[in-house]
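Changelog note: in this version the structure field was regenerated for every chain. One regenerated record is shown below for reference.
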Amino acid sequence: MDLKALAERLLPGEYPSLASFEEKYPPRNLPKGAQVTRLAPSPTGFIHLGNLFAAIANERIAHQSGGILYLRIEDTDLKRKVDGAVEAVKNALRYFDIRFDEGAEIGGDDTYAPWYQRQRAEIYRAFVKHLIEIGRAYPCFCTEEELTALREEQTAKKEITGYYGKYARCRNLTEEEIYRNLDAGKPFVIRLKSMGDPENKIKFRDAIKGEITVTENDQDVVILKSDGIPTYHFAHAIDDHFMRTTLVIRGEEWLASLPIHIELFDVLGFERPRYGHNCSLMKQDGETRRKLSKRKDPELSLEFYRKEGYYARAVKVYMLTLLNSNFEEWYLKNPEKPLEEFKFTAEKMSKSGTLFDIDKLNDISKNELSKLSAEEMYAFLKDWAEEFGTDVQKNYFSDEEKMLKVLTLCMGIGGKKRRKDFTTASQAMEFIGYFFERPASHEEYRVDGAARRNILHDFLEIYDSADDAQVWFSKVKEIAAANGFAAEMKEYKASPEAFKGSVADVAEVLRIATTGKANTPDLYSIQQILGEEETRERIEGAM
């Protein structure tokens, strides 16, 4: 068979020489040991925790080695493309401080552009044409119906599914059969002619899992689809070579494709990058663990963390505790150091499923937010409110001085111990809402109605916002004593049956009337921030 003539018929026209691509995309001029890593999502509009997991690892490995992290968009599947998806990817990763050096709409060195795979079609086709010419690729005319029937036959026989061996029906078509199909206008794809033998095993050094054994590939996978665009398998091999990628950190679900990728790099004559397959993120579901699910688990989506208002550093800290087994110990010793000072290594990444525990993330988030100054917290909450808050919540920031007082009180700034009440921006905005909006409802009082009204009435009679905290509390004690409550806790503990309750119960009545809540920071300080008029109106309303 005249393979050059066949290649010309299948992919007509002149293509640049393969050597010219090596000149166009030369090896990078980087220090010895520098790693070139990448994040290469599909533009589906859904970027998830697994993407962030890999992105943090790739970013740390690249930058601490003096290397490059780039963003490539793998848009070979138009059916899955969503408008605005690339911007969503960039926004999500920017929020978590993933700093790309170059790539799709990033800027930086464009030597290795374009960064969208569909814009690189000429490169792929040139290599496909070459593989046809050397007999390592061929046209396949099988229809979807035929391929479905093939899979059903293999499944019924309990054989491995795929297009290989005796099931590769177009692999050995004669020249006459190929041209007859072409002349009839039958659509076709181009498949790799695999030379692998599933009886052979390949030793492979995974950057994360260590030495593993995989079976040689014997699948004649599609490398060029009928629309002239390559499949992911083929495109990624060419792009990783010409973008000079040295290390690919990706999910362990790609382990099954590793034999295909090994054969593709070999047949293309390219040196393979190192691969590291990171473990799946798992969730405890009753007595069992399972992979986080897009359908079941909202916390899989990165948009969940932005909408809830998780502090980006907190999420990153938690991700690092999952990514490297020695990070948590380092961070306990160095809580104030930049995260970049931690020496990240692929070898310390987990080799099996990692349990994602949102409760632990929440604890870390509380701790990280408690370290902020009132001004830093103000900026964090304001940014969140502008994007995700209600109009009422946006208005909380119209009086910056008041908001800073609120945050100083609620965070315990200046006190003996910092409070850790805030988990996320959304929760914090709900937590402080009573400073800016009168409570729509009140938590249940422990004191009955008549006694409660008397307490509130007496408080309004003697309340003066000019009082200092000591005088204010002495008045609360007076009200307690006048209404049959113990003014001193030691009195109440000594003879609880002699009183209706204690001064703590009286304070709780005032607290709920003022804020709607039974548990808040210091009530005197809350009333000082609200002011006398607002405090009085709230208590009158509660009566």
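Spot check on this record: The radius of gyration is 33 Å. DSSP finds 23 helices and 15 strands in the chain.
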